[in-house]
Amino acid sequence: MFAGYDRQIGSRFVIGAEVGLDFGINDRFTRDTGTALMSVDPKRSIDLTARAGYLVTDNTLIYARGGYTNARFRTSIKDRSSLRSSTENRDGWLIGGGVERAFTDRISTRLEYRYSDLSDGRGKFDRHQVLVGVAYRL
């Protein structure tokens, strides 16, 4: 889900801001270390971003985005004697880009790639996403 505001500048440039809420659906990843089974399950992310784009045609926008993200993850480690798990929120930043195509004055679709760095100064913790969306404009 997302909500945002765009403003066309001149005949071809668009700038805007967007807030988004994503829920992870079956995107847990697991690794077997030989002595334990570790898994990370993204639960949700909240994004607050700015975007800037260029209209390559009257109804096709190519854009870049960047901003703040917060993600909630559940981490589990299962070994022979126990199962340990915890849930934590991580703050970070994201960058990405995509293409949005308007079908009518009110309905458009988009395809976007996002890279999020949620390391929080504690090693490498990043996320790659490919998102598909439909927008309805008021």
From TrEMBL:
Q: Where in the cell is it found?
A: Membrane
Sorted alphabetically, which keywords does the UniProt record give? Membrane, Signal
Lineage of origin: Bacteria, Pseudomonadati, Pseudomonadota, Alphaproteobacteria, Rhodobacterales
Q: Name one Pfam family in it.
A: OMP_b-brl
UniProt protein name: Outer membrane protein beta-barrel domain-containing protein
PANTHER family, alphabetized: BLL7405 PROTEIN
Q: Is S-adenosyl-L-methionine set as a keyword in this record?
A: no
Query: Where on the tree of life does the source sit, at the highest rank?
Result: Bacteria
Q: Which residues form the Outer membrane protein beta-barrel domain?
A: 3-137
The main location is membrane
Q: Which family does it belong to?
A: Belongs to the Omp25/RopB family.
